[in-house]
Amino acid sequence: MPKTQFIVEPGAQQVVMTRDFNAPRELVFRVLTDPELIGKWWGPSDLTTDIQQMEMREGGAWRFVQRDKDGNDFAFHGIYHVVDAPRQVVQTFEFDGLPERHVLLETLDLDEKNGVTTLTQTSVYQSVADRDGMVAMGMESGATESLERLDALLQSQRVDS
Question: Above 50 in pLDDT, residue 1?
Answer without folding.
Answer: no
